[in-house]
Please model this.
Amino acid sequence: MIPALLFLFGAPPGGQGDGRVMGAFVVQMVLIVGIVYFLLIRPKVQQEKKHRARLSQLKKGDEVVTTGGVIGEIIHLKDDRITVKSGESRLVIQRDRIAEVRSPTGPETTAPA
Model:
């Protein structure tokens, strides 16, 4: 692999092209970091941004699933406290603990994994 890189970047034989090999290494590392960013980090950040926007638009009647797995309907909103009716029970939960929002009229939105 290294001889091929030396050939590609025009390094003369005998080890006199160490600067060019180091330049090739830096280029490869920049490419790897760019690929990781665009394939892993950026989509995760965008998904979290959409989820936060969806949480800020909660309204009465939305069906939610908490991170603990409780499924219920929002009956009261107050800042970051939300009252959810699940079965015959009413629970007060934090807005941040909602993992999934299901509007009765809209499509399902899931939380970041």
Observations:
- The chain has a mean pLDDT of 83.
- Strands lie at 63-66, 71-78, 81-86, 89-94, 98-102, 108-110.
